[in-house]
Amino acid sequence: MTTTSAKHTAYPPFRPFLAHVADVTPLSAHFTRITFEGPDLEHVRRTGYDQRIKLVLPLADDPRWERSPLLAADCVERGAWWDVWRALPADRRNVIRTYTLRTTPDDGRVCIEFVTHEGAGPAGTFAMTARPGDTVVLVAPDDRAETYGGGIDFHPGVAGNVLLVGDETATPAILGIIGSLAGTPWDGSITALLEVPESGDVIAAPECERLDIKWLPRNGSARGTRLVRAVEAYADEHPRSFVTRWRRTGDSPAPAYTETDVDRELLWETTGDGLPSIGSTSRLATGSDGFYAWVAGEAAVVRDVRRVLLRDHGLDRRRAAFMGYWRAGKSEI
Are residues 201 and 278 in the same domain? Predict the structure, then answer.
């Protein structure tokens, strides 16, 4: 089955790719890497960082995607997959979940790292039961498109000191950011604070001389407890990172602190669009050492980390990204 026409010459920034499971590799008790191959996956754009994509699961009666409207020419060639999916009857809408495009090997295959656990939802169940040959659709950026379609929220601007904070669901994105920074001339420093379920969930991180990484296994403690305490300790130890110094560019005063009700609203605050620009001139001159924080994971924990950084230590929220990837007890897309 092909997903593009021979005569097609223009491509949307994001579009569906048919993908077959090629390999399933357990990384730890709670992390599994799945490698996908497919007829067009060599065209998935290799942007790196925290590049988000959509994983679309098959319907039970169409596991090979032979009848799916999501692979019709209008979806693949114009990128209309979202409108097509929304127009489907509720019982014909494929399950969609958001993941980080972890790696894109040179052989044209792509990898996603999944968090697996008891009582997992549809995507976690797929990861725990996947076998070579199983087929999904990945909605991802196409490197043949003339414009970039988004999906990256790591925007450090002029920062030379980066703090990365997250739980297991944000771990693939954080490792992707570290690997991307390690491959650039950027010579700043990175501190990564990663809370994972157990001690055995410490997985390999990309090599980076400027990296200080701390793994924080819960080992039965309450979610977020170790992560919030680690952020508090970091903020206490690095007071200079929270000194705001503004250029005279006409920017408005720093926004006042307000807190998001994560049970009613999406917590998603970012600082820019497009591809990251490391160490380049920005309208916002941040701090005495150019500090930037990227925080993601369970929304209530992200809210608590945000409170520590913004309210308790005075960080301007334009110097950080806060993203509630999921909310405990709720299904997410």
Answer: yes
